[in-house]
Amino acid sequence: MKIQNIEIIIKIGDITDENVDVIVNAANNSLLGGGGVDGAIHKRAGASVLEQCKKHGGCATGDAKITTAGNLLCKYIIHTVGPIYGRHGGLESLLLYNCYINSLKLADEYSLKTISFSAISTGVYGYPVEETLPIIYKAIKDFSAKNNNIQEIRFVLFDKEKYKLYNSYFNAILDKN
Ligand code: AR6
């Protein structure tokens, strides 16, 4: 499937195994690591990534910061901070949109071609996956009008349920367009 010239791939897997230019971490405002995908990434990437995160001095919700990838196969990690569902007075969807578009813009600025996203905010932060999908789609569509370098976007889902939801949403919406 494609959105403009960008290939969209949806897969089940562990994002720390991804051999792409950049993976996107679902971090928290401190950027100092945590549980979930953030914990898995820091554990395998190693201390050099934590050091770079410390130098960034945190990250606002919806923003994105980049580091190299330490021991991982990918070249870079983009750390973005998703909204906590129901905790931002109705701004949750905008903040999640910002996570995706800011991550894509940052990857593009670094001339990166392939990017793998985790399902930001859909774990501990409680955002229902179904509600995230139109937001993700809009961010990619808006970004694609200004894209220079990104050729492939992957969504790496940890479980079959989320994988199925992504697949049916993107198949349906991309068929219509
Ligand atoms: N590869 C791919 N996806 C994963 C992996 C993995 N190795 N591990 C978990 N997931 P979460 P959030 C999925 O909770 O909701 C952290 O403590 C998981 O199944 O990691 O944005 C941070 O430090 C879910 O679908 O991120 C923050 O404090 C998705 O990744 C907070 O959690 C995101 O779940 C951020 O919460």
TrEMBL record:
PROSITE patterns, alphabetized: MACRO
SMART domains noted in UniProt: A1pp
Entry-linked CDD domains: Macro_OAADPr_deacetylase (cd02908)
Protein's UniProt name: Macro domain-containing protein
Domain Macro as annotated: residue spans: 1-174
Organism in which the protein naturally occurs: Soehngenia longivitae
